[in-house]
Amino acid sequence: MALIVVLQRRVIANMRASAGGACVNHDGTHKGCRYKYVAVAGVGAPLVGAMVLGPQPCSVYDFCMKKYPTIEDTVGATPLVRLQRIPGAAGEPRGNVILAKLEGNNPAGSVKDRAARSMIRRAEERGDIKPGDTLIEATSGNTGIALAMTAAVRGYKMVLIMPDNLTLERRAAMTAYGAQLILTPAKQGGMEYARDLALEMQAEGKGKVLDQFANPDNTLAHIETTGPELWQQTDGRITHFVSAMGTTGTIMGMATYLRSKNSKIQIIGAQPAEGSQIPGIRKWPEAYQPKIYDPSKVDAFELIDQADAENMARRLASEEGIFGGISSAGALVAALRVAARVENATIVFIVCDRGDRYLSTGVFN
Ligand SMILES: Cc1ncc(COP(=O)(O)O)c(C=O)c1O
After folding, report:
1. Which of 11, 112, 218, 336 is 20 to 30 Å from 326 at the Cα level?
2. Is 327 tagged catalytic?
3. Which residues does the UniProt record annotate as the domain Tryptophan synthase beta chain-like PALP (predicted)?
4. Cα separations (Å) of 4 from 50, 51, 247?
């Protein structure tokens, strides 16, 4: 018996030495790595039976499967790129740099992938929902697409309620991910009506509403991921952060994180001017103000005209090669206004999604 133990140790040591690399997850941990029972070949025949090893940590043996990321694991870590032409006189002559955070590079195509993953994961961790449950959400598009993807990955049924005047691309993407759509007549009250209907359906026991407008996990997604990314990508040099405002999850989370690093960073919110319709963002009436919204976290508001945002979306694509959505271009209009007032600033704006999502509107024609 003692002899077997000695030999066993020696074989293990040899296996360690010969291992080309340990089995690790994409994030460098060994958690969840698959274990394997391995029969050691090549040792004396009588010992083979005794050498069947039990489950061993992957860090020790190289016989485990590498754990690859899921599609959900690829949310975040989006690029930050410098604008070269559009800033013009407001840019380098004033010592300003304008940077675009490309959230359209997320797997379901928008900044909302972060919020969707955060809201579903955390609700699951708290035991509020479990795979197989039905989730309901009122959405103007991007959140719906992101939730539909996350629900597909995690095994939930997804019901999305949206006004019927939103783009066909958005609807098609949601159904592609397997979500059920309920279209509400835009004339009947747009997003406000959709939000009320979602809560009514929850009260009738038809499913659980994540409520991106009141859910702190929406904001948390940016405190935990977008904020640290941006801080690291700018080496802490960011002076101004500009975001279009919808649920306000992005701007609230970024304000919270960035201010915790440097209280002087200016937070600028872009909202549609009176009479302008820019998909994904709103200046909400008082009764529908998102519960996660805290106006004290925003230093300045810029009202953006729809025509200016659409024109800038075309310029962003044709002059900078960045094919973003209309609200993203609206944020850039706001960023340029800031750049014209300041010097030696590092101004970051969020490109919430990609222009492909708006092709059917004809805005890029
Ligand atoms: C196109 C677009 N832009 C901007 C936003 C605003 O992001 P947030 O809801 O975090 O304020 C959204 C939100 O859904 C959006 O869909």
Report:
1. 218
2. yes
3. 71-353
4. 8, 8, 65
Supply the DSSP string of 277-306, one letter for each residue: --TT-----GGG--TT--GGG-SEEEEE-H
Has 283 been annotated as catalytic?
no
Of 110, 118, 140, 327, the catalytic one is 327
Query: Do 73-110+215-361 and 112-209 share a fold?
Result: yes
Nearest 5°: CA angle at 96, between 246 and 332? 25
Q: What is the pLDDT along the chain (365 residues), one digit of tens a residue?
A: 444 444 444 444 444 333 333 444 445 555 554 444 343 444 444 344 334 444 445 555 445 678 899 999 999 999 999 999 999 999 999 999 999 999 999 999 999 999 999 999 999 999 999 999 999 999 878 999 999 999 999 999 999 999 888 778 889 999 999 999 999 988 887 888 998 999 999 999 999 999 999 999 999 999 999 999 999 999 999 999 999 999 999 999 999 999 999 999 999 999 999 999 998 888 888 888 999 999 999 999 999 999 999 999 999 999 999 999 999 999 999 999 999 999 999 999 999 999 999 999 999 99
Chosen CATH of 73-110+215-361 out of 1.20.1560.10, 3.40.1190.10, 3.40.50.1100, 1.20.1740.10: 3.40.50.1100
From the CA of 234, how far away is ligand 1's center (Å)?
Answer: 23
Question: How many other C-beta atoms can be found within 10 angstroms of the C-beta atom of residue 59?
Answer: 15
Atom of ligand 1 nearest to the CA of 328: 3
pTM for the model: 0.83
CATH of 112-209, one of 3.40.50.300, 3.40.50.1100, 3.10.129.10, 3.40.50.12780: 3.40.50.1100
| Domain residue ranges in the chain | 2-51, 73-110+215-361, 112-209
